[in-house]
Amino acid sequence: MIIELAEDVYQICGYPRHSINSYVIDGILVDAGTRYSGRRILRDIARFDIRAHAVTHAHPDHFGASRRICEELGIPLWVGHADAAAVETLGLMYDRFPDHPAPRILSHLQGGPPAAVDRRLREGDRVGSFEVLEVPGHTVGHLAFWRESDRTLLLGDVASGHHPFTGVRGLREPFEFLTADPRGNRKSIARLAGLGPELVCFGHGPALRDADRFADFAAALQ
Q1: Cβ atoms within 10 Å, residue 181
Q2: Distance between CA atoms of residues 217 and 222, nearest Å
Q3: Which residues pair with 144 in a beta bridge?
Q4: DSSP bridge pairs for 196
């Protein structure tokens, strides 16, 4: 399912709906789900002229199908400079998780093959009409994409719009056992809330159109 959220911003919904989201912004695919998502995403984005693929962070439910999609479409892969090695090196992403069994289990269940990174993104780079923001915490190289003209924000897993297991809607921090630096991630939430986004697009959960609610959520974490 495809939902048009803003000008040249489309949500590619996973199954169940909103569980694992990908996006198309200005002809660029953002995130690629698990290794089982490739066929569905390729089908859903066939209507677009996709020219590149960007990844918010190196977790297996965000770049699981990246290699397949980039190879089949012949497009470059763009990843944050601090997460690029974890996308390119089999097993490195496991070492970057906290010491908890769940990350390794999820990585083996969801992860795809490593993929060569063609562009290492840094703060201030452009991805289409969006500015790259470095927002570490959930991973060391986590990125968000910000368009000031209409205050649209894609923030990956810095926060989520529902509970990932129950699907109950509501703003949430990522689980600590899946987060490299929970305190650093809270700082990134505060930074993003300070932008006053009118549209917040999550890696997990439905989009939010309520800047005050997002600001209140961030303030409650401080």
Answers
A1: 17
A2: 9
A3: 133
A4: none
Distance (Å, rounded) from C-alpha 109 to C-alpha 99? 18
Select the more confidently predicted residue: 181 or 222: 181
Mean pLDDT, rounded, for 145-158? 98
Cα–Cα distance measured from residue 9 to residue 27, given in angstroms and rounded to the nearest whole number: 9
Q: What is the pLDDT of residue 80?
A: 98
Give pLDDT tens digits for 165-181: 888 999 999 999 899 99
Question: Which residues fall within 8 angstroms of residue 32, CB to CB, at 6 or more apart?
Answer: 22, 38, 41, 53, 55, 62, 63, 64, 65, 66, 69
Residue 201 Cα distances to 39, 97, 99, 100, 205, angstroms = 23, 24, 29, 28, 8
Question: 34, 61 in Cβ contact below 8 A?
Answer: yes
Rounded to 5 degrees, what angle do the CA atoms 95, 101, 102 make? 95
DSSP string, 82-119: TTHHHHHSTTHHHHTS-S-HHHHHHHHHH-------SE
Cα-Cα end-to-end distance for the chain? 36
